Amino acid sequence: MLLEKLGEKIVLEKKLIGEVGSAFNHLRNSRSPEERSMVSAQLNNLIGSLKRTSEIIIDYTEKVSLANPLEKKKEEISQNEITSEPSLIQTNVQQNSAQIQPASPDSPNNNLKPIKGPLEMRDDIESGQVEKEGKDGLTPNERLTIKRIKKGEKKEETKKEKKPSRYAKISSKYFYNLSMSFIKKGMFERLRRNLVKGNLEFVPAVYLSIVFLSTILIAIFSVFLVTFLTFFSVSALPPFIAMPEGSILARLLKFIWIIPFAPGATFLFGYMYPSLEKKSLERKIDHELPFAAIHMSAVSSSMIEPSKMFNIIISTGEYPYLKKEFTKLQNEINVYGYDLVTALKNRSFNSPSKKLGELFNGLATTINSGGNLPVFFEKRAQTLLFEYKIEIEKQGRSAETFMDVYISVVIAAPMVLMLLLMMMRISGLGISLSTSIITITVVTVVSFINILFLGFLQLKGQKN
Question: Does the domain at residues 279-395 carry the CATH identifier 1.10.357?
């Protein structure tokens, strides 16, 4: 009966704690003085009830006795056990007495260890643990135990600090002030957001400085390349470099487009790269999120504190990409001092994954309103798992289509092209190329198409 009453009081105490938290949040969000006074009075009543309930629980706990303490008794060896094997004891005593001889202080045998008594010798003989000590004074079992302990010791991992690259230092030296002026004017805001969401370890001004320096270097290289192509002719047949035929102005107009195109492409790639990284990270997080939600649903059912739940998910090491996001969430709580709801909303705003941001937002709303966390995670896990299955089916169908296209373009088309070129060479119609030139052309085209397909697979996040 006492245990049942104790359980009822504990359940009542949990309910009072939840009501105190809700009243405290209401008091913090209320603005009118009348409402604050009413909520404050209700909060004082709840705190008083909570104190009285805690005192009753302490009283019941002191009265509960699950078992009587065991009395410690000294181990006594009966006389029957000592005299049970007289022959064995007598033999040991005789052997030990024969070995004991008076030794002088200068005797080399003065360092002998004390000889065990008859009971100790009998225990060693019965258990079979009589072992010879080595030169180090340790038995084989002791040496084996020390060896196992040394194997089990983990070496402390020292994290090396990441230093900025020399290229980043040079870029910041010449273009940091220019980059900061653009950022202060509100330009490149999308680039800054993508850098944060893509987990790129660059300050926006430093990354923008790198893009500027790379663009200028490519522009200089483009000028040299166009100048070289204007005054020299490059061919696949020896001599590979020769003097050009025709006017220099015509060749200059032919290659002048490289000067604006190459730097523009470099700047565009540098601007788009953080968004590509963000999309790649989003895809990887969405792949782990359904299973992490199932895990969090199981953990939240144990009524653990919500912030501790993320520590458990991090410690498993099964979700490497979600681990980074949850670590950032813990840093906002433990380092920056935000409460859990505010930290969840901040991470929702800066999350690279839309689904993870929705999960953080829903969790913040559920905690703020005093909702049921296990039910929330269970429903959200079902929705995420359903969407994950649909996405897997889409990827399977697109992979089938992609395979058909690859077979047609990379396998069938080069074979047809090679046959056409060989027939044209034999018949003498059209372009007549040698066998080596045909082989080099086909291999080059196939290699280029394979590179394009691999790049497409990488962007789609699929594996060949």
Answer: no
